[in-house]
Amino acid sequence: MSEVEAELRRLADLVRGGEVVVLSGAGISTESGIPDYRGPEGKQRVTPMMYQEFVGSVANRQRYWARSFVGWRRFAAAAPNGGHYAVAKLQRAGLVGAVITQNVDGLHQRAGAHQVLELHGALDRVVCLNCGSRSSRVELEERMRAANPDFVAAPHEIRPDGDVVIDDDEVRRFQLVRCLVCGSDLLKPDVTFFGESVPKELVQRCFAEVERSHALLVLGSSLHVMSGYRFVLRAAEREIPVAIVTRGVTRGDDQATIRIDAPLGETLARLEELTVDPRGARSAPSPG
Question: Is 114 a catalytic residue?
Answer without folding.
Answer: no
